[in-house]
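Entry 12.
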Amino acid sequence: MFGDIARFLLNTIFTLFGAALILRAWLQVVRLPPYNPVSNAIFQATNWLVLPLRRVLPKAKRVDVASIVAALLAAVVFVVAMIALAGVDPLQFAPTIALVSVLTLVKWALNLVIWLTILMALLSWLNPSSPAMSILSQLTAPFLNPLRRVIPNLGGIDLSPILLFVIVQVLLMVITRMAVSLTMFGI
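Predicted 3D structure (tokens):
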């Protein structure tokens, strides 16, 4: 029971922190203004890790390399902790830790896409004029706009979030299966 609680807490904490690091990089890719409450909260939560890395790592044109590397480091720590909690020596899985960490990072990013899409869909029904709606629209547009070109708008009903949700869920199943097959247990 203690192991299950510890795995749940580790998964929750690292998923939220990893998602914040990915969102930090994503905010810069979509050029969201840094002076909004969402950006400020993300920056405050992640500055302690990203700013020291930024001194060492160069910044690409629109990609915050330090945030991505920080997310990958968080994924490595998470994978090692989960392997150790399973009662297995992490050194035994040393060659696969890097691959499972990348899969974990992708899993966090896909979960972030799902949650932002769900929030945007709910907000579009409940309060479409909310200030958060523009932020969510800007963040999800790179994923939804290609789907909107494929799926016609049915009388004001946008089905692209549902299709995106299905696609991301399938990808999550594939990634989870890959991670399980590499480590013999779930991450």
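Annotation: The helical segments are 2-29, 37-56, 65-85, 94-126, 131-150, 160-183. The mean pLDDT is 91.
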